[in-house]
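User: Run a structure prediction on this.
Assistant: Running it now.
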Amino acid sequence: MNRNRSAFLFFLFFSSALAEATAQNNGRSVAEKLGFPRDAKLLIVHADDVGVTHSVNAATIRALDTGFVNSASIMVPCPWFPEIADYAKVHPGLDFGLHLTLTSERVYYRWGPVASRDKVPSLVDENGYFHHDWTAATKINPKEVELELRAQIDRAYAMGVRPTHLDSHQYRLFENGKDLFEVLLRLAHDYKLPVFVARDWFAGHPYLESTLRPADIVLDHTVTISPDVPPEKWADFYTTALKTLQPGVTEFVIHVAFADEEMKAATRERDTWGAAWRQRDFDFFTSPGFRQLLQEQNIKLVTWRELARALEQ
């Protein structure tokens, strides 16, 4: 009788202690789970669109080599995916995610689905490429979206990529309704990968917050440069963003490439996210000035791999 009572009391004590520890852990910020103070300024410098061209691949690899661009995401349907997949395979420690792709926005440089075109008819135009853009008349089938994105993820794994996270080319899976966001989250949960989502987006798209699970990673802020910033103000924009960086985890979404003949030809119809744009991003984020700003502002770099590991604890 006494032994049973002692065991019961121990069980109560253990359960109470476990519940308290769990509550304390759940109340810790992402920064604290990473080993930083609650008010730490943490930054992911993330290069988009890897695999689009050789120029983007080469510039991304060079930028990652500096250690100050510390994350990137790969577009599986694009022509230069095999090159970056091979690189990712032999550099498994790098922070490569998958930039899930459903549009082909350039005029003369196109790509289409990984899945058979006849299985994803709502995603392609009359020539079999992804649509340039989605308009009110474009009826996208969420089931076809899921089929295509699973094909992209499976191809990445088959070619040796071990992604650290998922995100969405042109934010299509975030900005086009709850159905598509649910597809993205279902894939993330099935493949046990975090998704790039930021609290900044909740006000404009309330279904994001309501659809997320408590265990999903949510970044605090995101920063990306816009077309209305003139070239001569490029460095000023990023400098201001770094000097006013808020506590929490922020992702800078950047686009790097070399402004060579290949990149100029691929993006020749417009300057936005074109060759010169990407060269400016590369130049800033590989510069000594950027490194100095990180030090002066006491900003710490983190990766998606580190976030996932910290939140698994």
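The longest strand covers residues 41-50.
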